[in-house]
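Supplementary Note 2. Why include the ligand at all?

Several targets in our set were suspected to adopt different conformations when bound, so apo predictions alone were not considered sufficient. For every target with a known small-molecule partner we therefore ran a joint prediction. The input for thymidine-5'-diphosphate is given below.
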Amino acid sequence: MGLLFVIEGVDGAGKNTLARRLVSAWECDGLHIARIGFPRYDRSVHADLAAEALHGEHGDTAGSVHAMALLFALDRRDAVDEIRKLLSHNDVVLLDRYVASNAAYTAARLEQTADGGAVEWIRALEFDRFGVPIPDIQILLDVPVALAAERAAARESADAARTRDAYERDGSLQSRTSAVYGALAAANWVSPWHVVTADVDPDRLAAELTNQPSGEPRVTP
Ligand SMILES: Nc1ncnc2c1ncn2[C@@H]1O[C@H](COP(=O)(O)OP(=O)(O)O)[C@@H](O)[C@H]1O
Ligand SMILES: Cc1cn([C@H]2C[C@H](O)[C@@H](COP(=O)(O)OP(=O)(O)O)O2)c(=O)[nH]c1=O
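The joint prediction is reproduced in C-alpha cell form.
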C-alpha cells in the first residue's frame, strides 16, 4: 500500500510547482508515483461546476459557502475508488489540494477559526460520511500571502486561460485561509502535518517524506 501525501496552501503558494519537483525527485529514486490535483477539472462535473461558479456562472451558487463546499466534496467522493486503486499500485500518491482545502476555505469564508463548526462539518462529511482516505502526511506550503498573491496575479498576466477566480481576487479571504491552515497544521488536524516554507528544498523534502515514519509536525528549511 502506497503513502498518501497532500500539498496544501493558498492560491499561488507554489503547490503545483512543488508537486512536480517532488515527483521528479521520487522518480529519480525509482519510486512509482501517481498524482491527482483537486478540483479534478475536466474529469468531474462537480469540479467544473465549482470553477464556473467562481467565474460568475450558475447564479448565486458561488455566494453560498456551503454549496461550494459540497461541490468540492462531491468531486472527492467520486475519486475515492481511484485513490484507493492508485495507492495499491504506487509507492506514493501525491494530491495537490484535498479535504483540508475545503476546511480552510470554508472556515475562512464564514470567518470561523479552525476549531469552529465549519471545519468539523467538512471532516465529518468527507472522511466519515464519504469515506475519503485519510492522508499519511499533509504538507502545508506556508508562504506569505502577499507573495502568493503576486504569483497568482503574474500567472494571470502570463496566461489568459488563468484569469483569477473570485477566491483568488479576495486578498482578505486568502489571509484568513492562511491563518486557518496554520491552525490546522499546528493541531495536526486529522493526520500529521509537515510545514514547509517558500524556499523548501524539494529533494530534501522528498527524502524526508518517504524515509521517515509520520509523527510530530516538522519544519523543513
Ligand atoms: N519556489 C518558487 N520560486 C519562484 N516562483 C515559483 C515558485 N513556486 C511557484 N512559483 C511560481 O508561482 C506561480 C504559482 O505557482 P503554482 O505552483 O501554480 O501555485 P499553486 O499551485 O499553489 O496555485 C507559478 O507561476 C510558478 O511558476
Ligand atoms: C479542492 C478545493 C479547492 N477550493 C478552492 C481553493 C481555490 O481558491 C479554488 C480553486 O482551486 P485551485 O486549486 O486554486 O484551482 P485553479 O487551478 O483554478 O487555481 O477552490 C476549496 O474551497 N475547496 C476544495 O476542496
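Residues 213-218 have pLDDT under 50 and may be disordered. Residues 9, 11-17, 151, 155, 198 surround adenosine-5'-diphosphate (ligand 1) (CB under 6 Å). Comparable summaries for the other entries are listed in the accompanying table.
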